[in-house]
Amino acid sequence: MLLTIDPAAPEPLFEQLAAQLRAAIAAGTLSAGDRLAPARDVAASLDINLHTVLRAYQELRDEGLVELRRGRGATVAARADDAGLRDAGLRAAIDTLVAESRRLGLDPRTTTALVKEALR
Amino acid sequence: MLLTIDPAAPEPLFEQLAAQLRAAIAAGTLSAGDRLAPARDVAASLDINLHTVLRAYQELRDEGLVELRRGRGATVAARADDAGLRDAGLRAAIDTLVAESRRLGLDPRTTTALVKEALR
DNA sequence: GTACTTGTTCCCATACAACTAGAACAAGCG
DNA sequence: CGCTTGTTCTAGTTGTATGGGAACAAGTAC
């Protein structure tokens, strides 16, 4: 599981990490029970702070996608499979939305904002 | 056009305002040519700073949804109709996505993150 | 048991974004 | 002309993101 960051991007580093891990779960690269690299290792290899990596892990824990335990590390939650990030209906819905957004030439900010609002 | 804010929310105030205005355009509450309330008035009624409101307006201008002119105020851009924020296909796509997200019990953050990733 | 791993929780410091505050300015309107 | 309204500027406060370091707690390995 290769993680990368772009220090120049507007998104916070921990959000970049969380997004890649979510995408990996959705793509099936990571499955329930799989272990994530220790936060210290990720921090060292990306040359960023331990706290930053842990914050990404904790965000995923708050979303119910990852389980964290001292001494054991971070593992993909069983719920991540059950909850179905790779559910066919969900992925179809996302693909359709992206296609519609592109068709209308909408700014990505506009699209994500509309979705966020619709989810409230 | 009633605008509200939640000072305790993690989203910046100007983003909250922009999101509501986008949603209003998408819902048809606001149409091309309609005038937005003067920034000073909004700032006063919400008890926030003029700059914060103007930043929301400017973000919408950058997205092509609103036009700003000194002395005349802020108006919904013609493109806002053409671009079709209230396009049937778009709205159906959003509704479907929201339904799928709810069905799977996904955290809103997870859903929006996946969409943002898919739009890149 | 001891040693090691790994997340958790503190401390603090720095950099940047968000917000506030106030003022002056410029374009449009009546 | 006066009034409205967005634009631009300066400046200060606050919160978040990130970094750096340390101690701690729960789990694993021997």
Walkthrough of the structure:
Chains A, B: This is GntR family transcriptional regulator. Chains A, B: Keywords: DNA-binding, Transcription, Transcription regulation. Chains A, B: Residues 11-79 form the HTH gntR-type domain. Chain A has 120 residues and is mainly alpha-helical. Chain A has two domains: 13-82, Winged helix-like DNA-binding domain superfamily/Winged helix DNA-binding domain (Arc Repressor Mutant, subunit A, Orthogonal Bundle); 88-118. The first copy, chain A, is 57% helix and 7% strand. Chain A has six helices and two strands; from the N terminus they run αααββααα. Chain A has a two-stranded antiparallel sheet with strand order 1-2. In chain A, strand 1 and strand 2 (73-76) form a beta hairpin. The longest helix of chain A has 17 residues, at 88-104. The radius of gyration of chain A is 16 Å and the shape is globular. The model of chain A has no long low-confidence stretch (mean pLDDT 92). At the A-B interface, helix 1, helix 5 and helix 6 of A face helix 1, helix 5 and helix 6 of B. Chain A binds a DNA duplex (30 and 30 nucleotides) through helix 3.
